[in-house]
């Protein structure tokens, strides 16, 4: 446990000692804030137009539009798409930069095991990710101060759980790719291409039918995420994401093992 904490503190300190973490977090908050305000404005405008049309038709009851719920569903959908493009920036140097500077060899020859290195680095990535994601909850709190009906916090928490699990899987996969090369630019590009392929695959299997189509739908990481954005926490989806995290960490561990074997 001490080895994991040592790596965790070392990695977290290195993130916030460089401008990369601040740039990524700042960019993420600016872009999400822009999309949140636009989504909210569009949906409020639609609700007001629906009320006006109902009044013009003779004062009938306007359609019941759950603006807060729609804002939340659309907003977490935007975040899921952004993660495919931002996560490579967070993971590209986690191992590649260490290998380039030669500090990876020092870690491998220290009393710390490969397992402790992998878990410590991954927990630091998760902490950085949560730090980036947490301030976006302020948007919903502000919206809740003026919304009617009250905010559907169940959908908010389930949506953010889905965002967290999706990001956790992408971080595990990105860290594995970073462990395969000494060039963090190469790691970032390969990670971005992989995530883009996952996004394209998700778009391609949405209308698929038959047994093969159902298999690809189940393997799509974004398909499972949509259930969370609707306020449904499906146990099978949670297991799917946790399995993806374990797979990414396992592959990273095997990659570090191969480094030790090649050095020996």
Structure description:
- By secondary structure, this protein is mostly helical.
- The protein is 82% helix and 0% strand.
- The protein contains 12 helices and no strands.
- It has helices at 2-17, 19-56, 67-91, 96-101, 103-109, 114-133, 137-144, 153-178, 184-205, 210-219, 221-229, 235-263.
- Helix 1 packs across helix 6, helix 2 (19-56) packs antiparallel against helix 3 and helix 8 packs antiparallel against helix 11.
Distance between the ends: 26 Å
The number of helical segments is: 12
Order of helices and strands: HHHHHHHHHHHH
Q: What is the mean pLDDT? A: 79
Low-confidence stretches: none
Total beta strand runs: 0
* Residue share in helix: over 70%
Biggest sheet, open or closed, and with what strands and sense? none
Classification by helices and strands: mainly alpha
Strand percentage: under 5%
Overall radius of gyration: 21 Å
Overall spatial form: elongated
């Amino acid at each position: 446990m001490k080895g994991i904490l040592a790596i965790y503190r070392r990695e977290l300190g290195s993130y916030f000692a460089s401008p990369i973490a601040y740039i990524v977090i700042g960019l993420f908050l600016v872009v999400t804030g822009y999309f949140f305000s636009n989504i909210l404005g569009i949906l409020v405008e639609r609700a007001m137009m629906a009320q006006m049309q109902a009044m013009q038709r003779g004062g009938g009851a306007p359609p019941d539009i759950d603006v807060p719920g729609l804002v939340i569903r659309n907003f977490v959908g935007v975040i899921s798409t952004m993660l495919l493009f931002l996560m490579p920036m967070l993971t590209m140097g986690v191992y590649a930069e260490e290998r380039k500077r030669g500090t990876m060899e020092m870690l491998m020859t220290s009393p710390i095991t490969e397992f402790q290195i992998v878990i410590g680095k991954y927990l630091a990535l998760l902490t950085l990710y949560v730090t980036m994601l947490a301030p976006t909850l302020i948007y919903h709190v502000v919206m809740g101060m003026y919304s009617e009906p009250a905010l559907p916090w169940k959908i908010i928490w389930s949506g953010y759980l889905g965002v967290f699990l999706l990001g956790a899987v992408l971080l595990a996969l990105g860290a594995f790719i970073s462990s395969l090369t000494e060039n963090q630019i190469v790691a970032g590009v390969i990670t971005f291409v992989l995530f883009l392929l996952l996004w394209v695959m998700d778009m391609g299997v949405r209308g698929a039918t038959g047994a093969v189509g159902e298999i690809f739908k189940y393997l799509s990481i974004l398909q499972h995420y949509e259930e969370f954005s609707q306020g449904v926490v499906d146990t099978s989806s949670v297991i799917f994401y946790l399995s993806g995290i374990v797979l990414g960490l396992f592959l990273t561990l095997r990659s570090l093992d191969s480094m030790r074997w090649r050095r020996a």
